[in-house]
Amino acid sequence: MQILVTGATGFIGNYVIDRLLQLGHEVIASSANAAKAATMPWYPKVKYTAFDFEAFDASADYFSYFGKPDCMVHLAWEGLPNYKSAFHTELNLPRHKALLTNMIENGLSDLTVTGTCFEYGMQEGMLKEDMQVFPANPYAIAKNELRIFLEELAAEKHIHFKWARLFYMYGKGQNPNSLLSQLERAIANGDEQFNMSGGEQVRDFLPVEKVAEYIAAIALQNRTTGVINCCSGIPVSVTQLVEDYLAEKNKTIKLNRGFYPYPDYEPMCFWGDNTKLKTILNNE
């Protein structure tokens, strides 16, 4: 199968491409930065096609431009992790609507797009795909509006559409300001203590390799469509995540809990229901 992956050079994109290649698929990789793409280990194994939203041409046929892929895994999204910027709704949303509409109207029949657990808003507990959503920051609002738009377009055009709603992930290549990246630096620098929040938040974490495996599984089937939580289904506190990481690396450092306030855009305790995902994995 020939699969287009956008956002190819991003944190998740690298791993999704590796997974699809491992499964024997032909990958068309796309990103805005061709020079960065050329440095990636997967570069010689894929067909690379650059794309920059700044140069979008509404009259073009992007389905043909990208080589008429059998399916598309749309990971691209700019401006993260600045979740509160109006950029997401004012620029990203119309840009992504335009590209994906162009792809579908010119022949794309199978689309998987990544969403965010922030679509659920400030709801706590186990979050299920059929729950009402209350996105509370511009990033989540933009993603949710894109999802609703694509659901309607997919129904109108009779295409396969899957929305992989991502939760939390970690691994090599993650944002340097992420929790475990900061912890790694503190250890490497020989710091006596690691400044963090109170650590009592409960989240749903996955290593990025698993996230990529699950995104690929979601994209490569059409039995289960619509919103699919891409998550572990296991509630874990932030403190537990940090302590498990230290134990795995056989490292010690004093945890200075409570140094940072809790983020105001996240509920204290939530995780995903992965029943739909498990159905997909069990049918592979």
Question: What is the helix/strand order?
Answer: EHEHEHEHEEHEEHEEEHEEHEEH
Note the gap between the termini. Answer: 16 Å
CA-atom Rg in angstroms: 19 Å
Report the total helices: 9
Instruction: Give me the count of strands.
Output: 15
CATH class of the largest domain: Alpha Beta
So, the CATH homologous superfamily of the largest domain? NAD(P)-binding Rossmann-like Domain
Residue share in helix: 25-40%
Mean pLDDT: 96
- Structural class given helices, strands, pairing? alpha/beta
Strand content: 15-25%
The geometry reads as globular
Q: What's the number of domains?
A: 2
What is the CATH T-level topology of the largest domain?
Rossmann fold
Strand order of the largest sheet: 3-2-1-4-5-7-12
Please name the CATH architecture of the largest domain: 3-Layer(aba) Sandwich
Provide structural commentary.
The chain has 284 residues and is α/β, with parallel strands linked by helices. The chain has two domains: 2-169 and 205-233 and 272-282, Rossmann fold, CATH 3.40.50.720; 172-203 and 234-256, no CATH class. Helices cover 36% and strands 20% of the residues. It has nine helices and 15 strands. The strands form five sheets. The chain has a seven-stranded parallel sheet, sandwiched between helices. Strands 6-15 form a two-stranded parallel sheet. Strands 8-11 form a two-stranded parallel ribbon. α1 crosses α7 (208-219) and α4 (87-105) packs parallel to α5 (138-157). The protein is globular, with a radius of gyration of 19 Å. The two termini are 16 Å apart. The model has no long low-confidence stretch (mean pLDDT 96).
